[in-house]
Amino acid sequence: MSEPILPIRRVGIDTWRENVVFLHRDCPVVRAAGFQALAKVRVQANGKTLIGVLNVVDDDAICPPCELGLSEEAFRRLGAEPGRPARIEQAEPPPSIAALHRKIAGDRLEEHDLHAIVQDIAAARYSKIELAAFVVATNQFELDRDEVLHLTEAMIATGQRIDWQREIGAGPIVDKHCIGGIPGNRTSMLVVPIVAAHGMLCPKTSSRAITSPAGTADTMEVLAEVELPLDRMKDIARATHGCLAWGGTADLSPADDILISVERPLGIDSPGQMVASILSKKIAAGVTHLVLDLPVGPTAKVRSMSAAQRLKRLFEYVAARLRLELDAVITDGRQPIGRGIGPVLEARDVMQVLANDPQAPQDLRQKALRLAGRVIEFDPDVRGGDGYRIARDILDSGRALAKMNAIIDAQGRRAEPQQPGAIGFEVTAPADGTVIGVDNLRLARIARTSGAPQVRGAGVDLFVKLGETVRAGQPLYRVHAQFDADLEFARQLVGRGNGFTLGAPEQVPREFASAPGDVR
Amino acid sequence: MSEPILPIRRVGIDTWRENVVFLHRDCPVVRAAGFQALAKVRVQANGKTLIGVLNVVDDDAICPPCELGLSEEAFRRLGAEPGRPARIEQAEPPPSIAALHRKIAGDRLEEHDLHAIVQDIAAARYSKIELAAFVVATNQFELDRDEVLHLTEAMIATGQRIDWQREIGAGPIVDKHCIGGIPGNRTSMLVVPIVAAHGMLCPKTSSRAITSPAGTADTMEVLAEVELPLDRMKDIARATHGCLAWGGTADLSPADDILISVERPLGIDSPGQMVASILSKKIAAGVTHLVLDLPVGPTAKVRSMSAAQRLKRLFEYVAARLRLELDAVITDGRQPIGRGIGPVLEARDVMQVLANDPQAPQDLRQKALRLAGRVIEFDPDVRGGDGYRIARDILDSGRALAKMNAIIDAQGRRAEPQQPGAIGFEVTAPADGTVIGVDNLRLARIARTSGAPQVRGAGVDLFVKLGETVRAGQPLYRVHAQFDADLEFARQLVGRGNGFTLGAPEQVPREFASAPGDVR
User: I want to staple B121 with a disulfide (CB 3.0 to 4.6 A). Which of A43, A510, B255, B395 is the partner?
Assistant: First the structure.
């Protein structure tokens, strides 16, 4: 052999955003160049270059000795047809690896270092192992606030950025975002129609669930289409002032998506990474005014008031430098919000609140009004403190429901409403007592195990909340599922802990989130 | 479906010590349980349990929808036949992940934490991403010396341990080890026959090359069999007092091998990890007295005298607690040792030194005598300072060569001697000058690119060393290879930097390693 050129083969393995290159152990290129498993290789074809990680295979059915296999991600990125020739060679490490090593060694990184790292990450030049190294090396107290600022800027700079002012001649673009961790916390689907009905422009892009039982995009999808091209979003925003779309169709902060693919299995979500992730996505989406929901509670992401204040200040520092108007609100994160956990059940809660149904969960209504009020107070014509009342008037008058229906119709209404999963079981109180603990993490896990969010109707429906008194045998919640196996997994999980703690009324944990005098 | 049970399929992908489980995207289990890519799953079959990482595939040729694919590593660990039923379910994170998170957050870990982590690593319960997180979180100054001690103990405890005293009624078991990074530094193959000829027991286990162009096992394999079962090693040690075997057949410190699989692609080799890796392997191999070679130089692993002293103290602290007699020697790491870089070329250098060939590289001879002398001084009957002279007498008298031949015959002599690669090219001096720099990393890379260590005869043969004066056009070294493509890669690499720096005689860097009064 003289040239390391092989025909491309598409290998149908979903490597979750990692470029993997497959070569057979008997491939002359592997033999000759002494390639090792997990080595970095450079593949050139179709005028494009790709850096990937080598996996050595022994099975001709996956990749025969004289072909160059590409994982789905790598195949998509290279954009060359199967059978086309590609050149493969050993790759130098990506240019920013030296900066990564300095961060691992404890150095402070400069603006250009972080830009170089984020560019390499966005171009998929980092392996999973290198991504994990970056996530750990920038974890916790390892990034100072200027490093977080530069990381955020770099993440914005590597992707698309929507300019609503230019696109539709708009004024402020408002949004509301939660840092996550509280099941059932579906306030966006209430805040958007309320503030749009007030006349503010709120074309919201949301994520699908990553580790939670439902994201806003998953829940909205129960009612309407959410995979909307940017042009459709613009038309809808022009017509209704609101939109509740999935953000994945626009290429906003692509490095963030890649970092999340490692943060998620590691269970790491440190303050600096959280701030860079959220603010880069929001600024790239063209948001100019943001209300941020920071829930605090024993099983929330933020577990103490001092940690919440620190996180709030970091968000505020970075937002101010990037000229994003930010109002960060510390909220009650002691338990799930509303009753349903899972897309269909959460959509039901939202529609009950919009319809002013007497059955509607009051905690979800109150929290949505509070956050919508803070968004409305971005309006220079609204006096500080008047937002809550304005939001309540919009909701009570039915204008919020009308606006939501307009948005749903504009996005494309689902033909028939989806129902909660047909099979299930109830979890009952083992004794008389007062509910003194409802574990966010446990209930999210049970809802996910029951099939949410992939199975839209699966999840948990809560019957009682913190501070309520129950009798032995009284149902605490119902688990909904579609498949027997899911239900069996969920039952086993509930058997190891149902997420509820009973005790005496005086043991109910105090809400330490709300500031004195805060309008609720 | 009612039970998540599927027949096993063997998927021929070498995942380099990671258990990967493949399920088709249309598999009812994936659909129902909402498994996500990179989720942790538990597989049970054959009375065994395995934790792996899920890869979702779209290609029936890799894994059809109703089968459970296992990577080579996972298949081997589970030890069940293809077609046998296996149960798959979502896995809890391994128990020690909580301790890993505390380390990431900056906590000091206790003895039991490190034991739990190392046990989970050795049992292959950590994903590549989690291993990378551990390696980074314990990097640099992140481990204090007691954490290094406990990490070392835990790594010893999870594998086999050879007890030579019990096995063959031996006294002290001596060994010599280098921390690596210096090409051609093949002193073990000289130290072992010299100290064995002195009557000391030195049954050495060595590694194959990981990132270098040749390990001791690769080089010894040019002359003799090195893959020896433990019983053979015992017989050989009884008969000859020496042995130069590959350590991979014994299950010594298995967690170390797994950590190396991540440290290598990350290029991380921090002091704590190095100490735990080397000392765990040596103690597990039954070594009681160890001479440690710590080369210092501008392109060595250790680049300053102060860093070398710090590393030496850490080795000494941990060794003392584990009752290993340790003599750590800081040596000259400014350039490669000997002439050859690559298995065949290095074996040639070793045999020339043993044969007292006038062509033998004197630096290799001197360094081996110095280290052998330090080992010999572990003998209570030898006066301090006499070791070097005793070693020299053994070498000069031909007794070291006779011992080496006895060891080679006992292990199984190779039928015909291997030759250096038949094709190659010479690299010449671009101008007149004195050699003031020879880059260890660059020359190792050139030797690897030419095919070493997989291609035994490939590598670099140095003609001049530091401080020598050359004329323009004079050959500096020759690159040997077996395959055209390798040679072409090596030629390109040399074109980007040949590893030699020429200058004026006064620019030759001073050797800062040798202590005053040290016998050489």
Answer: B255
